[in-house]
From TrEMBL:
Transmembrane segments: none annotated. It holds the Pfam family MJ1316. Residues 22-43, 55-84 are annotated as: Disordered. It comes from Lithohypha guttulata. Residues 88-142 form the MJ1316 RNA cyclic group end recognition domain. Residues 55-64, 72-84 have a biased composition (Basic and acidic residues). This is MJ1316 RNA cyclic group end recognition domain-containing protein.
Length: 147
């Protein structure tokens, strides 16, 4: 019985070693194919040899200038300022997402806008999205909030 177990173990080891060899050969094949693809891309790229040299020079200049970048403490303070100055998403993008994102219900949203003769007004976003006639159309720049 012990000999049959050792026989099974040796068969499993042989199978595992064969599998590992197959994996290594597949990896080597993939690397060869990738390097061939990169060589083909380089050869057939539309960048002229002059353009490639200029690109390489630009990269080396960029690496040389990295020594002049600010320290980490300065980067953190500027990133804090940048995060405070983030721009709002364009209203057209918001409307597009409300209209087509299945996770959002357009009935849950209200759009506030400036009506020139009546002041600030609100309307459901679903009404904003529907087509208006020329008389009742409200320009996007007069929208002042959406919630």
């Amino acid at each position: 019985m012990a000999s049959s177990q050792t026989n099974h173990l040796s068969q499993l080891r042989a199978l595992a070693q064969q599998h590992l060899q197959e994996i290594e050969s597949e990896k080597a094949e993939e690397q060869a194919q990738q390097s061939q693809a990169e060589a083909d891309i380089e050869r057939y790229s539309k960048i002229s040899s002059f353009g490639r040299k200029k690109l390489a020079n630009d990269k080396s200049r960029l690496q040389d200038n990295e020594q002049y970048l600010p320290s980490d403490s300065h980067e953190q303070s500027t990133s804090d300022v940048d995060s405070k100055k983030q721009r709002f998403r364009p209203f057209q993008d918001i409307l597009f997402r409300l209209r087509w994102d299945p996770k959002l219900d357009i009935e849950d949203y209200v759009v506030g806008y400036l009506e020139r003769s009546e002041g600030m007004k609100e309307m459901p976003a679903s009404n904003w999205i529907r087509d208006f006639s020329e008389e009742e159309w409200i320009p996007m720049h007069r929208r002042w909030k959406d919630r």
